[in-house]
Specification:
Layout lengths: L21 E9 L5 E10 L4 E5 L6 H9 L9 E3 L4 H4 L4 E4 L1 H4 L10 H7 L6 H10 L13 H13 L5 E5 L7 H18 L2 E5 L12 E6 L2 E7 L4 H4 L9 H17 L17 H4 L7 H8 L1
Parallel strand pairs: 3-7, 3-8, 5-6, 6-7
Antiparallel strand pairs: 1-2, 1-4, 8-9
The chain binds adenosine-5'-triphosphate (ATP).
């Protein structure tokens, strides 16, 4: 990475010259309701890596990404980004794009695209702005109250990515992109890691166009990091396409998810002591003062 171009500006400039490596050591995390979100997660992702974060719904991917982004307070000494604690340092060069960012209401108002892009630094980074407009095939004459979901998402991605980042944490926000837009976007992200040594962690359930893209895989299950490693570790399993039409990467991920389901059992049969109500039926929830069937029926009306 060209260190002098680094956007990481930790307090006192501590991270300014450091490569954007991600280091997680023995990270466990409890939500305010006392339930365990993550347990003993450890991983090391080098600068310039592109990691696919894989796991069933509820596996803990968002929880981990939010902790990495510094949006949640992790136990001390458990997370280092470019050698710095992201929560206390409030790193400039770490960008997290997740659901709350997607739901920002401003992108549904009658506002012009150039105004929006400039409001997030477009005029300070005109080359990046123009490149993103081209890559994401954005029409500058769009008004945001009158665009499709996919068009809106493309503008949002441009907004989120204009400011140079060294670490990008992407939480499944490319679902609305058509195949070509997603392919172009992924190629651009790859270029960012190769040109600038930026580091990406991408949580996704959609594997289209991803064969050959990740440098690392990380597999989460029930708040644990079940396995992770560089792609070389999975080469034998992922190096070409299968007759089923899935890529071998897709087959590997499907296998992981089936094993996870088998290990966990159907949701309504889990007896998870960590969370009141989890693994219960509607009937049994009545005893917890939660949803009974009648209550649910009322709400449905
Ligand atoms: N604020 C919270 N308080 C308590 N439990 C939570 C909270 N946020 C998430 N959880 C629980 O933590 C678990 C992990 O959630 P998380 O959002 O990290 O999963 P995920 O892997 O990102 O899932 P998905 O693929 O559906 O986005 C889930 O069982 C969820 O219900």
């Amino acid at each position: 990475m060209a260190n002098q171009d680094s956007a990481l500006q930790g307090q006192g400039g501590a991270a300014a010259a450091a490569k954007p490596e991600i280091s997680v050591t023995g990270l466990s995390y409890k939500f305010v309701d006392g339930s365990l979100g993550l347990r003993d997660v450890s991983l090391e992702l080098p600068a310039g890596s592109r990691t696919l974060l894989i796991g069933a719904n509820g596996a803990g991917k968002t929880t981990l990404l939010r902790l990495l982004s510094g949006k949640r307070l992790a136990p001390s000494q458990t997370i280092r980004i470019a050698g710095v604690d992201p929560f206390s340092a409030g790193l400039e060069g770490v960008t997290y794009l997740g659901l709350e960012w997607v739901l920002n209401p401003i992108v549904r108002t009658d506002i012009a695209v150039p105004v929006l892009l400039d409001s997030v630094g477009g005029s300070f980074y005109p080359a990046r702005r123009d490149e993103l407009v081209r890559i994401l095939d954005i029409d500058l004459s769009w008004r945001m109250h009158a665009v499709s979901d996919g068009e809106r998402r493309r503008v949002q991605l441009a907004m989120g990515l204009i400011r140079p980042w060294d670490v990008l944490l992407l939480d499944e926000i490319t679902v609305d992109l058509d195949l070509l837009s997603r392919s172009n976007f992924l190629a651009w992200l790859r270029g960012e890691t190769e040109r600038r040594g930026a580091t990406i962690v991408y949580a996704t359930h959609i594997l289209d166009n991803l064969v050959g893209w990740p440098t690392h895989l990380a597999h989460m299950h029930l708040g644990r990091l079940k396995e992770w490693g560089p792609m070389a570790k999975y080469d034998a399993e992922t190096d070409c396409y299968t007759n089923s039409g899935n890529s071998k990467l897709g087959e590997l991920v499907l296998k992981w998810l089936k094993e996870d389901l088998h290990e966990r059992g159907p949701r309504n049969q889990i007896q998870n002591q960590n969370r009141p109500g989890q693994g219960k039926t509607y009937e049994s929830l009545e005893g917890l003062g939660g949803y009974g069937l009648e209550k649910k029926a009322e709400d449905d009306q």
